[in-house]
Amino acid sequence: MVVLRLDSLALSRSRFALSPFAETLAAVVQLARPHSEPWAAAWWERHRPAFLARLAADGYARGLVELVAATKYLPDHLTLPPGGGMGTTLESELAAVARVPDEVAEAGLRASQAHAWAGRRLDRLTGRGHGARAAALFRELWDAHLAADWPARRAALQRDVTHRAGLLAAHGWPRALHLMNRTSGWVGTDAIRFSDRPGPDRQVGPDGMLFVPVTAQRSSWLCEAPGGPFAMVYPARGTGEGGSGGGRARDGRALARLLGGGRAQILRNLETPATTSELALLLAQSVGTVGGHLAILRDSGLVGRTRVGRRVLYHRTELGDRLAAGPGVG
């Protein structure tokens, strides 16, 4: 069991961050696998043919992607903590990856291969300049498969952070970190269980640690680098709830007939609390349109609002939850 131990100072200085690189890495793993997560099926089907064609044309790219999709230990040069907080840029992260020395990257690749299944080999990952080659590959994959979707993905990630920040302010870190991934949990008063697999405990330094959401619902890993904070990458809430089941689709159509399409869409997306501007970006609507729908939903008792710092978060009421869940639920 891997445990992250934090003293009171480390805990007080821990914070959230975004990582476009982590989002890209999680998306690459999704595209490399033969089946999509249900919520991302349309994106996966749209991008996978070009993604596979890109790998077929480049042995190094194919070798690296196949390794990260088949291992329980991601290579060290691909798991660096983001350095810019909520404003971290892809460019800054790619520059950090490119600077990783070959000996560090090669050691990480060997460790990753040792934890991979199906006998993954490193035959294609030869030569030098692993950091620079990985940075160039991920830049290309970002441009081809993530850049256009990033505003909506970022909005979903910001909603998760806003939700957890509200829990943190009201209840403390144990509640904010609850169910962050399938195996994490709070241990006692000063430690986080990250994984149930064997591994050494980590002592988090006085600068605290970072919590980094990604939209992929099966993605979770630990980032560390000399002189930097630990970072836990975890699945954001509310990005995979759409599904494709026939029952949910029928319930969605019934809800739209009852409330109108725009208000029904907002109510469904408020499973995770959000601000007006976050909803507007996520749904590609104007702030004014979303604000009007929210006013009607509030007047109907389906939505409430709470101020968290400078933000006003809208959330479903108990009645809104029951209505969004559909017949026979709750």
Automatic annotation (TrEMBL):
Domain of life according to the entry: Bacteria
UniProt keywords, alphabetically: DNA-binding, Transcription, Transcription regulation
Pfam family, one: HTH_5
Keyword Transcription regulation applies: yes
SUPFAM superfamilies xref list: Winged helix' DNA-binding domain
Residue span, HTH arsR-type domain: 263-303
Official protein name in the record: ArsR/SmtB family transcription factor
